[in-house]
Amino acid sequence: MSPRGKSAATTRKPADKAAKKATKPKEKPAPKKKSKDAKQVEALKKELETARAQLRVKRNSEMLDAEEDDAPPPKKVRPRRTPDAADDTDPNSATEEKSEDEHGLDESASRAGTPSTPDEDEMVVDDGPNAQKTRRGSKHRTGSRVTQATAVRVRIATEQAFPAEHREWSMETLKKAVSQDKTLSQRLAKSDEDNERKVLTYAWAGAPQVRSEVKALCVAAVSLFGIPGTHTQSEIRDIIEWLTSKQAIFKYGEVDVVARTYNKQKPFGHPFYQDVITKQWFSSAKSEGVRRTSMDQYVDLNIPLFALVTDAMESSLKEYATGVRIGNRFTEDEYADRYEHHQMTLRNLEAQSPQWFANFRHEIYSRIVQATQFKHLKKIVNEQDAEDLDGVDFAALEASVSAV
């Protein structure tokens, strides 16, 4: 090959390489893998958001019943409409899944874990977190504030945890709650069907809400039985079968799950009763057992309240029926019959041993109250204890000592 040909071939090779390089597609850089720390940060962020949502729900569900005896006279303010209540949803509040459509009530509020709020120009009797806005837009302001959901919560705990006719029961509760206020009673009577439905939905939301709260406290109190503890799965399964047997051994005092013994002379004497009742109804000034507007319903802890706690604990223990915890639903379909059974057991105990049963209820209530800082409750207990000496002739007692 001539020198000229060689130089031509030599010049073509770099040109070919450049052309191939130009036509070769650029590869996209591989996405960077998230480091372990980054994943942990994201997980913590999600947990924080969940916790914040739960906190919002808890704040929205707290019903305040502060007294307004010294409240100034109401001012006439032009009514305004407020936006619907925030639909923050508590992912852990889905204990009550049963739809109430057949009863004519919308259960969406209770599924969200907080009652929905009716419009301002409707019949509103509110004492919850939105009470300030509601009263500001209302034409009437009364000295004694009433809360539909709170009234329902009290009746669920102290009268009937699983009422059969939800709509009728809610309306009866609401009428009773507003009976002392002529204006509110008239507004309720004149409300149209749509407005009435909204108010009843708001009121009924307190029912599954309080049942879910009691169930959650009982789930935590399962640890008082030493479960899960250091037991094996098969051991836990056997323990649960023994505790939830026909005798409902879990309700007795001095239960020993290892020795399989309990004190038959201490029915409804297990420590979980005082633990759950204190946390649910006497833990703060906002608790229904502490507030002056509802505390009378909780004095000496009546039979329906004990039956509700017993029913919720049975449901909580059965979550460990397989030896590992599998959550169940504390619903009307599953546990209303057991609730009635526990009520019958309590009423039978009262009928057979009336004085013992009265003392039993009073002693638990006294222990709970004395462990709190609420002076008005302690006054109730002290006055009751003083009545035990009614009829005693103190002068005669003193005279008998001096005569000796």
UniProtKB/TrEMBL annotation:
Residues 151-348 form the DUF6532 domain. Residues 1-150 are annotated as: Disordered. Residues 133-143 have a biased composition (Basic residues). Pfam families: DUF6532 (PF20149). InterPro entries: DUF6532. Residues 13-30, 37-50, 95-109 have a biased composition (Basic and acidic residues). Coiled coil: none annotated. This is DUF6532 domain-containing protein. It comes from Mycena alexandri. The lineage of its organism: Eukaryota, Fungi, Dikarya, Basidiomycota, Agaricomycotina.
